[in-house]
Design goal:
The complex is a heterodimer of chains A (156) and B (272). With 156 residues, chain A is of the alpha+beta class. Chain A contains four helices and eight strands. Chain A has one domain: Jelly Rolls (Sandwich), CATH 2.60.120. Chain A has a four-stranded antiparallel beta sheet. Chain A has a four-stranded antiparallel beta sheet with strand order 2-7-4-5, with no helix packed on it. Chain B has seven helices and 15 strands. The structure holds flavin-adenine dinucleotide and FE2/S2 (inorganic) cluster.
């Protein structure tokens, strides 16, 4: 019953919706339900990136810590967003802090389980690459816009 | 063209370096204006600057402008106080064709000080809400303390018939709103819309407008249903001096509001 729920969530998500039923059920085997209270840390920078999350409800602040300063929120994520990319790239470390701003409900996908399935089945690995890269490209594009600080020197 | 005299009847701060003022005409009634048009404001003895009209076009007697101090003229404008006199030429330029978009889903995308030039069109859409299929206002700013018109954004958000999404590029803990560039917010808003039925009005820094237009087009919004507002340095504001030349167009006469497909190729060019 729980697996069926995960499959449906994956099938409706933009990153996974192109996968066939068989692949979705394979990936659903790596899924788990997660809940975080407001203010709770989801992960810290440098932690092992052993999961990636599909947020179902609630808001998450992605933060970067600056020495002797308050952390800066660089991104907020909300229902439907994917949290955590560290699992894709060795040495599989979290690249920022993530903190629940409100009560968060999420589905996590176990990184080792996902990587293991991709190693066993290169076609799945390639399909994962094809589906994750466009998503990453959108995030990188947004990051570039953030980086150039468009409003920093604007007049109107 | 001779400036008409106006009296400053009210000034109020918006941000550290941004001020709004209300002007009352001294030389006969204020001319009607269209949303997106601008005036040349002349603080006497200093010089003129193009500033968009940011008030309600159904109430042209209350002429409102929001100005950021960046140089001599704009600093003189933001330094005006109640009772001062200024010269005004205008209104000039093309406008947001909001009145022609009835039956469509309206999306306003305002980056930073791009909200003041859009506000008259937003007022029109809010006042005539039943004429439109949907109304979404997206406002992006650098940080929470640089959001323009925060009280009005809250008021618009409280309406059941209007979506308001506010996002900042970065924030400190304590901010519970969205953090991310305006295009992220836009992509999310567009996901729930019938893009072919969307008419979008985009105003802000040029890079932000370019990226927003790309997002709109990628989502399926027709490129002849997207409008942007351009800025170039101005002198005469009536198409004589060529100061505001933008490729084959003069921004003061052919703009500042352009349909995106007419300038899309120029938007990406360097040094134009
Ligand atoms: C159609 C139109 C509508 C405008 N609406 C508004 C408005 O509603 N509110 C507002 O605050 N400003 C608006 N502006 C911009 C405003 O006209 C300029 O900020 C002003 O002319 C600057 O004059 P200044 O003498 O104060 O500064 P200057 O001494 O001319 O310039 C000071 C610095 O600002 C830079 N700068 C000047 N103008 C611009 C510009 N347009 N874009 C980017 N950098 C610039 C200069 O390169 C210089 O570095 C608008 C401009 C146009 C063309
Ligand atoms: S300002 Fe003179 S032509 Fe536009």
């Amino acid at each position: 019953m729980a697996l069926k729920g995960f499959e449906t969530i994956l099938a409706e998500h933009p990153v996974f919706k192109g996968f066939d039923h068989e692949t979705l059920s394979l990936l659903a085997g790596c899924a788990k339900n997660e809940r975080f209270r407001p203010g709770e840390t989801i992960y810290n920078e440098g932690d092992t990136a052993d999961k990636t999350y599909i947020l179902r409800e609630g808001d998450v602040a992605v933060e970067i810590c600056c020495p002797e300063k308050e952390p800066i929120i660089i991104e907020s994520l909300h229902g439907g967003d994917v949290l955590g990319f560290g699992w894709l790239v060795p040495p599989y470390r979290c690249m920022s802090h993530a903190r629940a701003v409100s009560a968060v409900r999420a589905m996590s996908l176990d990184a080792q389980c996902m990587r293991g399935k991709c190693d066993e089945n290169p076609a799945l690995g390639y399909a994962m690459f094809q589906h994750w890269v466009p998503h990453l490209a959108v995030r990188f594009r947004a990051l570039r816009l953030q980086l150039i600080d468009v409003y920093g020197c604007e007049v109107a | 063209m001779i400036p008409r005299r106006y009296r400053v009847v009210h000034v109020w701060p918006e941000l550290d370096d941004v001020m709004s003022m209300e002007l009352a005409p001294l030389d006969g009634p204020s001319p009607q204006f269209k949303p997106g048009q601008f005036n040349m404001i002349y603080p006497f003895g200093v010089g003129e600057a193009a500033i968009s009209i940011s008030g309600d076009m159904t109430d042209p007697g209350r002429l409102i402008h929001t100005t950021r101090a960046v140089g001599a003229v704009s600093s003189a404008i933001t330094g005006l106080t109640k009772g001062d006199m200024v010269g005004i030429r205008g209104p000039f330029g093309s406008h947001w064709p909001i009145e022609d978009q009835t039956g469509r889903e309206i999306v306003f995308v305002a980056g930073g000080l791009g909200l003041p030039p859009l506000r008259p069109a937003i007022y029109h859409a809010l006042q005539n809400r039943k004429d439109y299929d949907g109304l979404t206002i997206i406002h992006g700013a650098r940080s929470p303390d640089t959001l323009v018109y925060p009280e009005e954004l809250t008021e618009w958000k409280s309406r059941f018939d209007t979506e308001v999404d506010v996002t900042v590029d970065h924030a400190l803990p304590g901010w519970t709103g969205r953090v991310g560039v305006v295009t992220t917010c836009l992509d999310r808003a567009l996901a729930g819309m019938d893009a072919v039925n969307v008419s979008a009005f985009v105003c802000g820094p040029e890079v932000m407008m370019r990226f927003s237009a790309q997002s709109l087009i990628a989502a399926g919004v027709p490129c002849d249903r997207i409008w942007v507002s351009m800025e170039r340095n101005m002198k005469c504001a009536i198409g004589f001096c060529g100061h505001c030349q933008y490729g084959p167009d003069f921004v003061c006469r052919d703009g500042p509001v352009f349909r995106y497909d007419k300038i899309a190729r120029r938007l990406g060019l360097k040094e134009i």
